[in-house]
Amino acid sequence: MRPESAGSDELRIYDNIDGRLRLQIAFQPRTGGLRGALLDPAHQMRDPSIDYAVDHADVIDVDGDGTRELIVSYLAQTTYPPVVRIPTIVAWDDRAARYRLSPLLSRALPSPIHRANEDKAFRGAYALADTTRRATLHGFGVSSLVVMSAGGPAASLLAEGIEADETTSGRSLLAISLFDLTLIHARPSVSAKCSLDGPRPTGVDLRAIRPVLSSDYRRMLRRVASTLAPDMPGTTVDGSCHFRE
């Protein structure tokens, strides 16, 4: 739900119980209504002034158990680059008999950027705090993210992209990493698969699309992920993605 005035969007989930919609989970980060400022995780932690908008809600069976999960990102409302989304996941917890909302990236993942300067907007965790319900999510941000189901009892594929500037040439690039995503007691577990840190083979010139802050790289991430050899084994955190000829 989008507030009528300033403030972040509210995520609500209802279940149809005996023909009536009943609210099961609600979450709205407390923010100060500011838009257009540069984003800094540490500052947002101390003073959450910049609003977040609910962005890209996808329903997917993450671990192939027949139960679908909701993946939704909170998009920081800024008018300066980089684009930052904090992804979250809503999963059913059988043990607690309730839905559980968790940050999808609750810890710093191995950085895919080797020859680039990572923007400070991606260097720390964001605190999304719903003070009314006394709930806080601590999660890391990305420029774009997509989750692709394995279609069976296996880990899903998580592809993330982070905007960066290469140190040597100063060109803009999208650093892409792939991870295995599973659920453990309704909480996400992410492990590194491989990474690439240049615009090739995607051929995307980020300087041409960066002025459009609402732009996303989901379609490109799907193409990159689907181009990977399906039998590619897991690699070390600095391993390279290998593409089919």
- Please state roughly what percent of the residues sit in beta strands, choosing from under 5%, 5-15%, 15-25%, 25-35%, 35-45% or over 45%: 35-45%
Per the principal axes of the C-alpha atoms, what is the gross shape? Answer: globular
Determine the oligomeric state from the structure: single chain
Number of strands: 13
Report the radius of gyration as a whole number of Å.
Answer: 18 Å
Distance between the termini: 45 Å
Helix content: under 10%
Residue ranges: pLDDT <50 for 5 or more in a row? 198-205, 207-214, 229-238
Characterize the largest beta sheet: strand count, sense, and whether it forms a barrel. 5 strands, antiparallel
Structural class label:
mainly beta
**H-E order:** EEHEEEEEEEEEEEHH
> DSSP helix count?
3
What value does the average pLDDT take?
Answer: 77
Short structural summary:
This protein is mainly beta. The protein is built from three helices and 13 strands, in the order ββαβββββββββββαα. The protein starts with 10 loop residues before the first strand and ends in an 18-residue tail after the last helix.
